[in-house]
Known about the structure:
The protein is mostly helical and 232 residues long. It is 78% helix and 5% strand.
Amino acid sequence: MNKSLRNQQTKREEFVFIILAAFFIASLVITNLIAGRFFTLQIEMLNINWALSSGIIAYPVTFLVTDVISEIYGEKKASSLVIAGFIVSLFTVGIILIANTLPISEISPVDKTSFHNVLGLAPGIVFGSMIAYLSAQFIDVKLFEFWRNLTDGKHLWLRNNASTIFSQLLDTSLVVIIALVLYPKITGVSEAISWAAAFQIIIGQYVFKAVIAIFDTPLVYLVVKGVKQYLK
């Protein structure tokens, strides 16, 4: 391959990585912003009536993106994106905290209480989310690489689901246990929920995430195929 073609190939690879990284960062930030808004999932025939955080709509996209990047670019690129996401999350939290402490203007269309209720960050939830994010995302990347080596690069569906479903369980469990059980008990700033209630929340959140992970497998295949064709 001559120098001109190599440069063109490099530009294509960088462009695709930036687009994928943008989806990852956007999904991560959106998850943090809408996590406090809960919705009810009701399926009468299965006797399901779960209160779920809106954050689970966007968060599974981050696992999809890391799987695609691991498949195309390798483990190091995926791990670097996870670190970048953590830095962006810290930056976002910092900006929100600053905005929340600034004096409110009389002409502000959003009053201080409304802003705090929507974007106010509970320390326990922030702490739990950060630990869960780093743990789950790095394990997802590691498991994806493990299954790739074990299957000799075959069976993308296995790598995608086996890594994501396990890491999602870890993520969900850590967030709920740290934010709603351990942190309140240690600090006493709020009332801790019972272990039984925590288990119910974990099951509801995890089942929803696992179902999304299974159904996004065709999308992973589609994106990987499209990227490989674009990169030639």
